[in-house]
Design brief:
Blueprint lengths: L1 E5 L4 H12 L5 E6 L10 E5 L18 E4 L10 H22 L4 E5 L13 H14 L5 E6 L2 E3 L9 H9 L1 H10 L4 E3 H14 L5 E3 H6 L1
Parallel strand pairs: 1-2, 1-4, 2-3, 4-5, 5-6, 6-9, 7-8
Bound molecules: NADP nicotinamide-adenine-dinucleotide phosphate (NAP).
Length: 219
């Protein structure tokens, strides 16, 4: 399986990259981002890009891939709806539309979050923007598209949050988070479980298009 990964420098993306590099059935990973991952691996190739609404300069390198794991995303905290929609909906759909055209046999996996609003019209700004993004992705002519809605995610195996105070909390609360993962899988997953589950749905499919934390943990 050949994979394209967006957001490989982020907390979720680092975890997904790790699992992809470890998986013997994944032949290669193309990481597309605005900054380097800092990793070297025979299976990993990187494209650095700066305009995430226009892929005409690099799109020709995207044909022949089996799966895309789209982990690029931002927090809505302190952001206007217009800016958040641009960074969430517009960037994701620009990449996905190009990928669907070049790879109709591709499986596309997108990370949203627990509480995403499928009506796209609810009260919570982030939830309706993510909901509209999911809905528009599901209309694209991929072989299949899966929406991952994790709640909290514990970083494992050296994966680090880019936000220093998040990272400090993850380290201090690690034993509690591990316990929560076992007793409350609805609310807690890990970067390893997210990565493994993405690979599994890309290989074997899944009965529904939306996977909540507990579905991710069961895979
Ligand atoms: N972390 C959680 O607990 C959690 C839980 C549920 C859902 N999620 C969702 O998972 C997704 C990823 O979250 P995360 O925690 O991994 O975020 P993160 O650590 O902040 O990483 C964000 C990733 O997106 C890239 N990115 C951000 N803005 C960009 C832009 N304007 N242009 C190009 N690349 C950009 C970053 O690249 P740079 O390295 O270049 O900045 C980085 O690779 C988000 O959609 C988030 O809502 C996260």
């Amino acid at each position: 399986m050949k994979v394209i990964l967006f957001g490989a420098t982020g907390m979720v993306g680092q975890g997904v990259l790790r699992e992809c590099l470890l998986d013997s059935e994944i032949e290669s990973v193309l990481a597309v981002g605005r900054s380097p991952t800092g990793q070297r691996h025979p299976k990993l190739r990187e494209i650095l890009h700066d305009n995430f609404l226009d892929y005409s300069a690099i799109g020709s390198q995207w044909a022949g891939y089996d799966a895309c794991f789209f982990c690029l995303g931002v927090s809505s905290v302190g952001m206007s709806e217009e800016r958040y929609r641009h960074l969430t909906h517009d960037i994701t759909l620009a990449a996905a539309t190009t990928l669907a055209r070049l790879n109709p046999q591709m499986v596309f996996v997108y990370v949203t979050g627990r509480g995403t609003d499928s009506t796209g019209q609810g009260r919570l700004m982030w939830a309706r923007v993510k909901g509209k993004t999911e809905n528009d992705l599901l209309k694209l002519p991929f072989k299949a598209a899966y929406m991952f809605r994790p709640a909290a995610i514990q970083p494992l195996h050296g994966v680090r949050s880019k936000t220093a105070w998040y990272q400090a909390i993850y380290v201090a609360a690690a034993p509690l988070l591990s316990l929560l993962n076992r007793v409350a899988p609805k609310y807690m997953t890990t970067t390893e479980q997210v990565g493994r589950a993405m690979i599994k749905v890309a290989k074997d499919g899944y009965p529904g298009a939306v996977l909540e934390s507990e579905d991710i943990n069961r895979l």
